Structures are given as structure tokens and as C-alpha cells.
Amino acid sequence: MPARTVISLENLPQTVGKIFDQAQNTTANHQKNFVALHKLHTETASHHGSAGERAFEHAFLNMLGHVLPVKKGNPVADRLMRFIGGYTKYMNERAMEEANKRGDDDDAEDFDTTAARFISRVLRFLFKGSVAKDKVVRYRVMQCIAEMISHLGEIDEDLYKLLRETLIERVKDKEVPIRVQATIALSRICGADEEDEKPTIIDVLQETVQYDPSAEVRRAALLNLPLGLLTYQTALSRMRDVDPSVRKAVYASVLNPDKATADPDAIDVTHPRALKIADRERIVKNGLGDREEAVKAAVAKLIATWVDIVQIEKVKSTIAEDALSSVFKTRVDILDSLTFGDDYWTDLSPERAFLARVFVDHCVATKDDVRLESALPVVTMLAFKIQEAYNDLNAFLADQTMDDFLKEGIEDEEEDERRQMVEEERTDREFVIGEMLKLSVNLDYADEIGRRKMFQLVKDMISEEDLPESLVARCLDVLRKLSSSERDLIRVVVEVVHDLRDRNDDEEQADPNRADDGETTFGETPATVKTARAPPKPPAEMTEEERARADAMDMRCLSLCIGMLERVNGTFEENSTLEGLLGELIIPAVKRKEAALREKGLVSLGLCCLIARRMALNSFQLFLNQLQSTPEKHKIPVLKIVFDILMVHEGHFLGPTSPNGDRIVEFLMHVFENSELDEVQALLCKGMAKLMLSGFITDERVLRSLVIAYISPETADNLELRQCLSYFFPVYCYSSAANQRRMQKIFITVFKQLCEIHQQSEDEDIDLISPAQVGLLFADWTDPQKATVVAKGVPGREVDESIHIDLATDIVKELFDDDMRKDDRKALCLLLGKLYIPDTIDDDKIRTLKLLMHNIRARRPLRDLASKNAFVKFETAISKKFEKQLEDFNEEEYRKLEHLQELFEFLDDIIPDIDDVDEMMEAPKKRGSRKRRSDSIVTDATSQGAPSGDDRSNTPFSTTSSVASRTKGKGKAKRRRLSTSDDEDEDTETEKMDSPQTVKPPTRVMPKRSAAAKTRAAVSKVINLVGSDSEEDIEETPSRKPTSNLKKVQKAMEAARIDEKDLAEQEDEIPHDSIMDTTLEEEDYEDEEVNNLL
């Protein structure tokens, strides 16, 4: 057998490179390359020792360094990152196998293995790249760590702390992809975190899930958040996230339906049996009520899997109903297996009654008449069932009332349990009756006997004082179904109300102190007398018991009135019987001091106002006053009344002819801005959003307030408000070009207000949305292309494509503000590139925009490079796209247009930033002074050339301070310059400025071809003025070393080139005040300087 070849360290980089080259092509050969690379690694380490390990690590890191600068999305780089993570896993597995074979259980030696040293070297190399300036490098570093981190094995404590700190720092990186990879990596070391380390990794992940501005990062944190008793509530809170993908991830991944059905015995915190009833209700309510179909589908799948695991609980809300309806849609097999025979109705439990009622509602909604006929019971039979159940309920309540009276004052655990069981029993009985009444609405009342029986039963039930409050609305629904018209319904309810209020008046009509002996006085003729109904006793004359009973009766009557008015669509004038209730019951209730009675009275009055326009006009101020005087928690029903009245009678309150429309809007804005309760804020937001979407409110102040509320950090926890506005703004803007125009007009105001908030909160730890993000939101909301998609489906709808042009005009006007911060100016400039520019634009608008951009460059030049590049790019695109429209543009003729006088007044008021121009002109002088030129030349001959032709870009500006050193035959002057100190330079410069013999250069600009001769003449003249002094200084001052002076000359040459390059872009803007051009060839200049120095 041939001897085994020893791997040479010189060929090691090529061998490692070949393996990486194969791994980047496909993932199919990764396993083979894991083996080859590990074999190379171990053999190199065994044959060459530590030097071999270092050589392999260097070759490996060299290959890794080639991958780090590759941008995101490159599949080759992604495969190599997976290869590195896979190799880490393979290497640790092999090391563990070898340790097990040796029987080595000493943990201390795990840190001193080849694998441990390799991982430590790679991680420390990656930590350096985590703070790189290039975002691509930081992204690839985090991606590599995320691939490796699950397979690191045992690492030392210092390396772990460094890894933890690096990942926590990158979770707050400004780039979204980097934060995503850092979050994924950080979630995989949660188990190694210790409680005393603050902040804990769990805290960091929870904060990321809730508050990170990027939906992609929140979703990554949600999917990788370890679920436990302390974290699952945070995960469930994302059911109200503003992004649909995050909401869907909660139902499809966090509450994984496949996990529950795969192993029913494995119960974790998200298992339906482990979840609380309130949590299950919240999941169903938020999921099935979501506006995204994808989210609804995920919830429907989740609920369908829950049917086989848990029973649907009976609840008073519609949550269980929505869940069961979803099951009927997704599980047709369950729907087919349900049958409702006569035995089913014999002993109804809450679950059985609920199932039958939802089944009937589902058949009615889907128009499944076949299943409906087989499920509906006979009307008469159901009426008797309801009557029997109601009688049993009354008997049960009477017995318990007696027991409570006998056991009054007894407080122990058994008594508490008994009361709790009684309450549950009462709730179950009421629930069964309510479900049967709901089912009665869908019955076929062709049977007249059954109809009369049901009508009389329901009428008698609402006439009972002890009828539970939860059954009042159900009885009124049946009564409305059985009534021939609204008048009939109102008549029946009014009779019942009067009967309830007058039931005890019969005992009071007779005088209790008068004895009735049945005898009459002589001459009296007995006759039948019709007794009139006595007026109710005033509250002041009532006892406490009578007053409490009267208040309870009024509450019951008000509940009946509210239920009746909610089911009436006719006008108040058409139903004159309501006037009696208004004067005798509703108005007195509004005047009561008790909060409960006054609230019900206000609701009843508000419902009357919805069907009575004149009453609404007279009573609207009353509701506004109640909003001011009512506590925060009691404002919700009053606000609902106010918004309902504004929606129904919009023309009389918010219409163009209404004198109080502006005052109403200002009042609502005042309440909205000063409300502290989240529910009140959300309700006000919904109400104003509906009014704006309907076109009843067009005030830009309201729209601005809603935008500020949407981006304000104070509403970050008010998810109901945030989700309402996240849905409102796109619908509002895309539905109408006029709405987009309003949004465009408020952009600058909102942007400036947000910038002020940022400036004020720089020292505070407040998570604010950046101005750049706000700009992107407005660019999206005002995009005419998205409004075009909506307009295609609506005939007669037009789209205004010039909105973004007007927005660009507003942005450019705002750039004239010299007090704007650098970051805010940059955000506006970058936003210009995001705007949609249509193919056809009105001439006035495009010329106005071009004029503003021209004046920006002339009067307020941008200093920041990023801002300047973005602005130039946008201006170039505009000029190129509308070149024909801008050909004949003349500003003088444009000034004559009357409608543009305001624009030119704005431009004329802008004072050019002369300081910046002077600073740019003085910059080359300051740099040139470091070259230690002759004093007289620096003082008297400083000038700017006027280059022309091909040489203009190379020498845009030149100073005569360098001419003295470039002009031949002036060696003595050079010797004087070398012997002059810095202090003497300054003194001499001052003297020459005051000298009357100083020759001032002309201010006329001449072509470059004549500049050279005049430059030589001017320089010769200036030097002759100081020639005699220079000869004397030669003898007094010793010369310096030529080599050091030559280096200074070379540095001066480089500084002059930099000055020329920096000022090349400004030559057209800075006026030239000199005809001298001192441009010479660099070689001649260097030779002359050397000769003068030597």
C-alpha cells in the first residue's frame, strides 16, 4: 500500500477553497463536503499541531471573508452560510462521539479541543464584523452566527458573554434584516440565560415582539419566542398586530393546530385545554373578526381542530357562535351528522339549546331549506317548552330568595359555594330560555294557533317585573316578528310600560283612613262613578322601599323603551304614542341624579332623536354638555349617541348650510385630544373616521389630529385605535382623489410637528417613529397609482395624478428652511425619489417645481452628500422627462402671471446663504497659507481664475499665492519665504494690506488664454515692490534643509489639488473677481521649486 500523503500547509488554502467551491453550487453535496473538510481539519491538526490548526483556521476564515460582503438574497452566499452552520454541527457531533469512545467525561477538557478552539476563533472573527460600517457585512455576520449558534456545544463563559452582548446590541441595529437574524440567534440561547443577568434574553425578545417597528422583525421574534406561562400572553397580544402576517403567525404557528391533534396527551400552554376560557374567547373573537381572509382561514382551521379536543363553552357573547359557525363551514361531516328529533327537545341543556339555535341560524344564512325543515320544531310545542322553562325559572328564583332570607348573615365556605352554584344554575336556565327565544324568530308562523300562543306568551313575559334583563331583548325580537307593523309593536310595548308603572296605583286610589261600612245617607242616590287614575306619588313622599321599587320599575321600563326604539325605523311623528313615554318616563329619567337612570334616559332620548329631526336639533346641545360633565367611564354611551345623530342627520349639523358645523368639529377634537381613557379615545377615533370616510367632515384639522394620534407614542398601547386607523387611512385615501389631496396638504405640517417632537425628546428614552417613515407613509397614502386601481371598479371616479408633483413642490419649498436639521432635510430629499411622476403634467406645475429646485441650488445649496445626491437625482429625472416642456421656460415672463405672484414673493424673500459662499471661497486660501508663501503675494495677489475650455474642470480655482513659487527667475523671493516664521508672516501680511503701494487686481473676468500673460505681469510687479527687502533678509536668515522644504512643497501641491477638486462643482456659482490664472504644469512647478530651494 502506498504511504499516506501528508497535507502540505502551502496547499491548504487551495484545498479548502475547492471544498467551498463545491458547497456553493448545491446543498446536495454538503454532507460529503462536511466529511472532507473535517478530515482535512483533523489531519492538519494531527500532523502539524497548533501550526496546522492555525493554518486551517486562517484558510477557513479567508473563505468566510469572501462571503461576508455579498448582498442579501444571493443564493450562493446563503448556501455557504448553511454549509458553515452544518459543518459546525458535524464537527461537534464527531468530537462528542470520540469523547464517548474514550470515556472522557471531564467537562473541563471540552474547552480545549480542536472543535472548541476552531469555534472560538470563528466567533471572535465574526464579532469584529458585527460592528462593521457596511450593513451587508453585519447582516452576513449575524446570519452566520444564527446558523452556527444551535450547534456550538460547550463554550467558555467569556465567549458566551461576548456572544450575548453582541446579539443584544445587534437586535437594536437600524437595518431590518440584521435585527431579524440577531433575533433568531438570540432566541436559541434562551436556555443558557441566567436570572441575575439583566436584561434577560426573554425580556429582550418580548420587547422586540411588541415594540419593534418592523413587522418582519416582530414576526421573527414571535416565531422564535419560547412559550411559557410568562410569555404566552405576549404572543397572544399579537392577535391585534397591525400587520396581517404577524396576526396569521399567531394562529398558524404559535397556536399550532397540528400540534394539538398530533399528540392530544401532550398539553402545553397553548393547548386548548390549558388555555383559559377568556383566552379561548379572545382567540375566537379576534381571529374570526379579522378583516383579512388569510387570517380568518387560519383561525377556522384552528377552531376545527379544537372541536375534537374540547367542548365549546356556553357564553353570553357571540364568540362561541362564531366558532361553531366556522366549524360548520370547515367540517361538513359534523353538519351532516346532526339530527333534531322530538326527543332532542325533551330535556334541553345549555349546550343542546345552543347547538340547535346555531344550526338553525346557519341553515337560514346558507338558505339550506332541507336541513332547516328537518330541524325546526312545531311552534306550539316550542311555546309550551318556553313557558314551562320560564315557570321553572320563577319557581327556582322564589325558592332561592326565601333561602337567602333565612340564611342572611351566614358567611362561610359552604354558603359561598351554595351561592355560586345557585348563580350558575340561574345562568343556565336563563341561557336555555334565551336560546329558545332566538330560535323562535326563525320559526314558520303559518299556524295561527301557534302564532297567537307565542304572541301572548311573549307579551306576558315582558309584563313580568321579575323577567331577567338578558331576556328582554330576546322577547322583543319575537314580538317584532309577530307584530303586523311597527305601530303594533309600539302600541304593545307602551301598554306594557303603562301597566308596569300603574300596577300598584289601585291600592293608593282609596283612602286608607276612611271606613267603608256600606251605608248611605238619606237622599243619596247610589251611582257608578268612573275613577280617574291618580297621579304617581312624588319621590319626596315615598319611603326608601317605595323609592327603590319605583326606581327598579323605571329601569325596567327604560330597558323596554330602549329595546323597542332600537327596532323602530319609522319617524317619531308617525308614532304619536311615543310622546307619552317621552314626557312621563324618558325626560324625568334624564333629569335624575342617579347615574344609571340618567344614562338609560339619555340613551332612550338619543334613540328618539334618531327618528325625530326636530328633537335632535333641540337636544344635541344637551348631549354635548353631558360629555363635558360626565366622568370618563360614562362618556362612551353619550359619544355613541352623538356620532349616531351626526351620521343620521348629517345635513343639519355638519352640512355646508349648518352654522355650527365648525364648532361641533372643534368640540369633538377638544374631547379627543384631552381624553385619557383608551376606550374613549378609540371610540372618538372610530366616530371621526366614519364621518370623514362618509364625507360629512372635510376639515383638514381632524385628519391631521388622526395622523398625529396614529404615530404618537402615547397611543402605542391603544391597539384598538391603532388598528382602526391602520385600516382607515388607506381606505380613505384610495377611495377619493379629494381625500388624497387633503392628505397631501397636511404632510408638511405633520412632518414639522414630528420633527419638533423628535428635537424635544432627544434626551428622553421615547420610541418615536422617524420622520423618514412618516414620509414613506404619506407617499403611500397619496400614491395616485393605488387610487387608480380603486377607481377602475367605480364608474365616474377620476384620479388626480398630479398629487405627488404638488407634494414634491411642498417638499422643495420646505427645503428653503435654513433651521431644518440635517436628518430631517435628508429624509425629505430621499422622499423625493419615492414619488410617482406621471408622464403628463401641467406646464405651470412642472415649471414651478423646476424654478424652486433651481433656486435651492442658487440660494440654499445642500451640504449633506446624501441629501445632495438624492436631490440632484430627482432634479435630473424631472429635467430629462419634461425636457420639451421646459425648453421655452423664461422666468421673466413667468413672473407676469398673476396667480404666481405669491410664489415669486416667497422666492424673493429668501436671502441667499452668502456665508456659505464666502466660506467656500476662503477655504482654498486657508489651505494655501500652510504652504508658507511670500507675504506680499498672499496678501495682494490672491485671486480666482476663470478657466475655460478643457482645462476648466482641472483648475476651477487658483490662487496667486502659488504663482510666486511657480514663476521662473524669482529665486531671491523664495529665499525670503524660507526664512520667514509664521508670526512674521502674519505681521508682514498686515503691513502689506495697509501699504498704499499695493497693486489691487482687477475685478473683471477674462478668458483663460489671456490670463497667463497678465498673471506673470502682476506677479512680477508685486515681487519688485519687495525685492530690496528680500535681498537683505537673505543674509540675515539661515536657509533650511532642501529635503524638508521639498517635502513641504509636495504636500502643498497635494493640498492645492484637493482644493481644486473640492471647488470644481462650485465654479459656476461663485463670482470670479480676478483675471489671474496661475495654472502651470506640475512638472515645471516641481523643478522650479527644487531649483529655488537649492
TrEMBL record:
Q: Where is the composition biased (Acidic residues)?
A: 1079-1094
Question: Residue spans with biased composition (Basic residues)?
Answer: 967-978
UniProt keywords (A-Z) are:
Cell cycle, Cell division, Chromosome, DNA condensation, Mitosis
Extract the Pfam families matched here: Cnd3 (PF12719), Cohesin_HEAT (PF12765)
Q: Where is the composition biased (Basic and acidic residues)?
A: 1054-1075
The record's region (Disordered) falls at 503-546, 922-1015, 1028-1094
**Matching InterPro entries, A to Z?**
ARM-like, ARM-type_fold, CND3, Cnd3_C, Cohesin_HEAT
Where do the Nuclear condensin complex subunit 3 C-terminal domain residues begin and end?
Answer: 556-837
The primary site where this protein sits is nucleus
Q: Where in the cell is it found?
A: Chromosome
For bias kind Polar residues, which ranges apply? Answer: 937-946, 954-965
Give the UniProt family note: Belongs to the CND3 (condensin subunit 3) family.
User: Under what name is this protein listed?
Assistant: Nuclear condensin complex subunit 3 C-terminal domain-containing protein
Species lineage = Eukaryota, Fungi, Dikarya, Basidiomycota, Agaricomycotina
